[in-house]
Design a protein that fits this description.
By secondary structure, the chain is of the alpha/beta class. It is built from eight helices and eleven strands. The two termini are about 30 Å apart.
């Protein structure tokens, strides 16, 4: 079940405003070009920011997300017809043969059990062509992002076009490493509606991620730093073994 921040019909339309400029996506566009990928599967595409960018680069994009409300936002954007949108998780994928699968925005951390993560890796591998690529990011546990989250208690208030003034508050609710839970609370000035969204992320070490990839039919090509978040993220480049 997707978190409310992605799935609630009032929260999905304000997600892009609070998420800000997606400079992180430039690194993925560069990787797509470096690998010569012409077909890309965007796993956990959310509101479609990367899918739209790649489609404008004349890349064939299949974008997948389990949150219907987020997909509705993505489909409402200009150029959405150039992308194939699929509502569901990786188990919902039809037969594919893509050059590259990507998972941005630390979506890999939402798979908190080893079983769910392994199932996702298997489904993505099946969607790749032989020796196709899988690229994704995850936060470095040693950077202790949760400490920064806990310290940032001030609300953020934005005037969102078409929605009016919206306040966002975040609080860390539980730290039980490798799991960290937090809650977003949104208040809409237009009608006073208050909506909360609870999330839990798993912080895997680099060794854990590399081992899981090897076990599930990938070989490591590279582990990079996220250029817009130096020292805070791992960007994994892996390849289907056969």
């Amino acid at each position: 079940m997707p978190d409310a921040i992605f799935a609630h019909p009032r929260l999905a339309p304000v997600y892009d405003a609070f998420d800000g400029s997606r400079y992180d996506l430039n690194a993925y566009r560069t990787i797509v070009k470096q690998l010569g990928a012409r077909t890309v599967l965007d796993v956990g595409c959310g509101t479609g920011c990367l899918a739209h960018l790649l489609a404008r680069d004349d890349i064939t994009v299949i974008a997948l997300d389990p949150a219907k409300a987020s997909l509705e936002v993505a489909r409402a954007k200009d150029g959405a017809a150039a992308v194939t949108w699929i509502h569901g998780d990786t188990s919902s994928l039809p037969p594919l043969d893509v050059d590259l699968a990507v998972m941005t925005g630390n979506a890999a951390q939402v798979f908190i059990t080893d079983e769910d993560w392994a199932a996702t890796l298997h489904s993505i591998r099946t969607a790749l062509r032989r020796q196709g690529y899988f690229v994704f990011e995850t936060r470095r546990p040693e950077a202790k992002a949760w400490e920064e989250w806990a310290a940032e208690t001030r609300p953020v208030v934005l005037d969102v076009p078409g929605m009016g003034e919206v306040e966002q508050r975040r609080e860390v609710t539980q730290i039980d490493l490798p799991l960290v839970s937090f809650r977003y609370t949104y208040t809409f000035a237009s009608d006073g509606l208050r909506v909360t969204s609870d999330s839990t992320l798993r912080f895997r070490t680099r060794d854990e991620v590399e081992q899981s990839l090897q076990i599930n039919g990938y070989r490591m090509l590279d582990v990079r730093d996220a250029p817009d978040r130096p020292g805070r993220e791992y960007v994994f480049l892996a390849q289907r073994t056969n």
